[in-house]
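note to self: dont lose this again. the chain is below, predicted strucutre after it. 84 aa total, dont forget to put it in the shared folder this time
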Amino acid sequence: MAFDLFTVFGIVGAGCFIASYFATLQGWLAPDGWRLPAVNLLGASLVLASLTVAWNLPSVVLECFWAAISLYGLVRALLRRAGR
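---
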């Protein structure tokens, strides 16, 4: 398996998902804060970038939904924070 730049993007993106999930379970990331959806959006974006080289339609669909939900959560958290 070649480790080109897009493969590294995919691995780092998957690492973002794993790290954010673990950090949330540990209480290090608040589930309603802006950091969790930001890390998940970064992860989805990186995995999507890797999928431009290693195309997989089900994974693209999953990552698009993951990115959209993360973007929604990020905007919601930032609006909530601005309203303080």
